[in-house]
Amino acid sequence: MTRVGYLGPRGTFAEEALLSQPDLAAGTPVALRTVPEVLTAVERGDVDVGLVPIENSIEGTVTVTLDTLAFDTELLVQREIDLPVSLHLCVQPGTHLEDIRTVVSHPNPLGQCRSWLAHKLANATLEVANSTADAARQVHEAASRELASIGNAHAARLYDLEVLASEIEDHPDNETRFVLTGHGVPAPTGHDKTSIVCFQREDRPGSLLAILQEFAARAINLTKLESRPTKRGLGQYCFFIDFEGHIADELVADCLRNLSAKQADVKFLGSYPVAGEQGPARRQAATDAWQAASTWVEDLRSQVRSGP
Predict the structure, then answer these.
(1) Are 77 and 269 in contact (CB under 8 A)?
(2) Using CA atoms, how far apart are residues 254 and 307, in angstroms rounded to an integer?
(3) Is the separation of the CB atoms in 124 and 99 below 8 Å?
(4) Fold held by 88-165
(5) Is the dihedral of CA 248, 250, 255, 258 positive or negative?
(6) What pTM value is reported for the model?
(7) What are the pLDDT digits (tens) for 18-51?
(8) How far apart are CA 250 and CA 295, in angstroms?
(9) CA 19, 24, 29: angle at the middle one, nearest 5?
């Protein structure tokens, strides 16, 4: 069975995302403490694939995931999973809001609940944990009414905690995107995304524009553009770019070929199916359109005369 490493311990949103995928849920889950540990375990072969968070609709990019993929591993993204997120304040049974002195959670949920915390627990100290489930475990083990965690209802049940306040995130429609990492490139589906990192060869006016023009010239739609330090010195940045299409598409291959030859050093992070409710329908529509076009072309070719 497939061994699936994920950001643990049990009760994290990563585990929820894993369980939302039937093929991954049928595998053997392996909880690991940090994002780098998950990715390292895949590289060593301790697990077959690794599931880690990469982006949140409120807090933005999970930088540790992005940086580890760019600088510390040769793993490729296999798919993305979008998970709706609801955050709850979890406490020892019988705790009241005025009892709480410290709130512990992963940095991202703390940021997602910044306004709620400022209004409801302005004097509480905020502490960082490796994950929301680890925060729930700390509250369980401390057995103190002065400590609370922010996480999901699943973790609250696992660690016998009470949900004191529900859906405390500052913005509705909160979602976290996870990526499944592994080896090799998944086959194209007709509704795919490609992720790359571009390292400028020299810092000069118009260098980013020249990179972007390679996509514009081919009408390739960008879905994300983000700069991150290269870790080689102050003021040196690389660009993370997500765009529609698959490396198997000739247009995408031509774009990457020209980027690498003319504009920048490129690291390929993967071509993989796009997540979301409309993904399967769009993939089916693309398949149907391809089959219809193929039938049309073959019908035309069948009319070609064999001689003068």
Answers:
(1) yes
(2) 36
(3) no
(4) D-Maltodextrin-Binding Protein; domain 2 (3.40.190)
(5) positive
(6) 0.78
(7) 999 999 999 999 999 899 999 999 999 999 999 9
(8) 20
(9) 80
